[in-house]
Design a protein that fits this description.
alpha/beta; Rossmann fold; 8 strands; about 35% helix; globular
Amino acid sequence: MKPAQDNVITAYQDAPARTVEAGGVTYAYRELGPKGGIPVVFFVHLAANLDNWDPRIIDPIAASHHVVAFDNRGVGASSGSVPSSIEAMADDAATFIGALGFDKIDIFAFSLGGMIAQALVVKHPGLVRKLVLTGTGPAGGKDIDKIAGTTYYDILRATLTRSDPKEFLFFNRNATGKPAGRAFVKRLEERTLDRDAPVKVKAFQTQLKAIKKWGRSAPADLSQITQPTLIANGDNDRMVPSVLSEDLHRRIKGSELVIYPDSGHGGIFQYHAEFAPVAVDFLAR
């Protein structure tokens, strides 16, 4: 049992905006949930800031865990410029985690965040206890280097229909996917005060280049990842092909895999009611 704490914030929309300085960078972050125990650090996706986390995923985890979400270097309200490689982003994440005084964490990662998380675990294995990898793929993974093309194409499609690009990038354009996409975008607007700084175009472009480099690099030795790992995705991920989730599952010994039907890159957000309890259970074990 965790000790009872007064006035614990368990809603992401109420989490105060904080900053910490480390290695010449001011990192923006938010924390919520009961302190004590191993914190769960959330690694966000491409072109995303702190406002891009689905409260229906974070809030159930924060009900029983100390949760920290952050902007890596050069992203959102964090200072500095985005590094040109996933490995350097992992080093920055480790610097941020060290600045908060954590010596052991669980990671919840989505998309680009999942790539950074893999690089972090390989470089700093002692830092991570458990790993949740969603909508992501390994270094050298098939078609990861095509993410930029898919992204620009969907941004154009979204602009033409005055929609949020995430509705195209994360969700199927069918009778199930379209309303799920709209509902997801609406949930991201629940926080009205103290919102994060937008991600700059140059930061987004540098992230895309780093992803392309990751996709074209030599396959990583994932047998190095010995942490309990939960992998999840939709069955029709156009950004980071769903087969890469299966590839991760095959190569990370003892990992668990959840694939949601009739859903895309944002499968965990479309199926948040089903997925959040799975993640909570996995982290609690």
